[in-house]
Design brief:
By secondary structure, this protein is an alpha/beta fold. The protein has one domain: Alpha/Beta hydrolase fold, catalytic domain (Rossmann fold, 3-Layer(aba) Sandwich), CATH 3.40.50. The chain has 10 helices and 6 strands; from the N terminus they run E-H-E-H-E-H-E-H-H-H-H-E-H-E-H-H. The chain has a 6-stranded parallel beta sheet, with helices on both faces. Helix 4 packs antiparallel against helix 5. The longest helix is centred in the middle third of the chain and has 21 residues.
């Protein structure tokens, strides 16, 4: 199983979540940790590079948010490499051109904060985003570990990710969902209304799609309800 983390995360977080129950390779995505993001990177090029980490005859692929968008691109572009797919809190792209342009402009403003003011100012802005607010109060230790993980990122790397791999730069993959004939599990937190609606629709367009809504959770469902997410993965992959 190959697992792809979200924006501002690292591969270590998912390794801890999955533990020994689910053996997986957790890849570090470009622009995160020590790994630079090539200035010409695209979701398709990153997906192509990561496809080599899966067996030639197919493996299981899990992606959250940014990692989910890459995972979806990989499954569509390299279908022989993926036998089962799990998408957590991610979209198949933005269909409306105006909304896409607005998202690109928003991400550029955030990238400029990273370039000019660094991680502190970025996190002060990023962590006030209501869409990312946990559904329930987080334990202090977890909140501190998440902030530490984010503060150890490279601001230039994150800025490049926003400019090259943000959802506004993603192809509209909605028309291609019908191409995925493998089993697909889609997961969203109950308080993440936009993603619940979108992922339910995605599941309906997939030949073998199944949607699971996790109670008492927002966008970062794997952090807010880790045992539930681990159980969903275990059941699906069994």
């Amino acid at each position: 199983m190959l697992v792809l983390h979200g924006f501002t995360e690292t591969d270590l977080f998912w390794s801890d979540l999955l533990g020994a129950q689910l053996k997986a390779t957790c890849a570090l995505l470009p622009g995160h940790g020590w790994k630079p993001c090539p200035p010409a990177a695209t979701l398709a090029s990153v997906a192509h590079d990561l496809s080599a980490k899966l067996p030639a005859d197919g493996g299981d692929l899990v992606g959250y948010s940014l990692g989910g968008r890459i995972a979806l691109q990989l499954a569509l572009d390299h279908p022989g490499r993926v036998r089962r797919l799990v998408l957590v809190s991610c979209l198949a792209g933005i269909r409306d051109a105006t909304e896409r342009s607005n998202r690109i402009a928003r991400d550029e403003r955030i990238a400029q904060v990273l370039d000019e003011e660094g991680l502190g100012s970025f996190l002060a802005l990023w962590e006030t985003n209501p869409a990312l607010k946990p559904c329930l109060p987080q334990p202090r230790g977890l909140a501190e570990s998440i902030r530490s993980m984010r503060m150890n990122q490279d601001p230039k790397g994150l800025a490049t990710v926003l400019r090259r791999l943000g959802v506004g730069h993603m192809d509209n993959l909605w028309p291609r969902l019908k191409e995925l004939t493998i089993p697909v599990l889609l997961v969203a937190g109950s308080a993440d209304g936009r993603y619940v609606t979108a992922m339910q629709e995605m599941a309906g367009l997939l030949p073998h799609g199944r949607f699971s809504r996790v109670a008492n959770s927002g966008h970062a469902v794997h952090r807010e309800q880790p045992l539930e997410v681990r159980g969903l993965l275990t059941d699906f992959l069994a």
